[in-house]
Design brief:
The protein has about 80 residues and is an all-alpha fold. The chain has three helices and no strands. Helix 1 packs across helix 3. The longest helix has 15 residues. The N and C termini lie far apart (about 30 Å).
């Protein structure tokens, strides 16, 4: 994944975050519901509750976004089911 010029070094990202990032990459341009993420994560042997999933996404944003408070790569879309 090409990051938008924020980093000049390699990033250390754990395997769970890598798998979560892969979900976003494979579904680029699509809105994924929390339920869909939970179902896919559970299929991949993750054991998350909703808050833990939110925390993993927040940590992933901190790793890959230039400005995690204003994400451009992983965005939250409110109001979808």
């Amino acid at each position: 994944m090409d990051l938008p010029g924020c980093y000049d070094a390699e990033l250390a990202i754990g395997s769970r975050k890598i798998q979560l990032l892969a979900l976003f990459v494979w579904n680029r341009g699509r809105n994924l519901t929390r339920q869909a993420l939970m179902e896919k994560c559970l299929e991949e042997s993750f054991h998350y509750d909703c808050r833990a999933l939110d925390q993993q996404i927040a940590q992933l944003r901190k790793k890959i976004e230039c400005d995690p408070r204003h994400p451009q790569l992983i965005r939250t879309v409110y109001g979808i089911d």
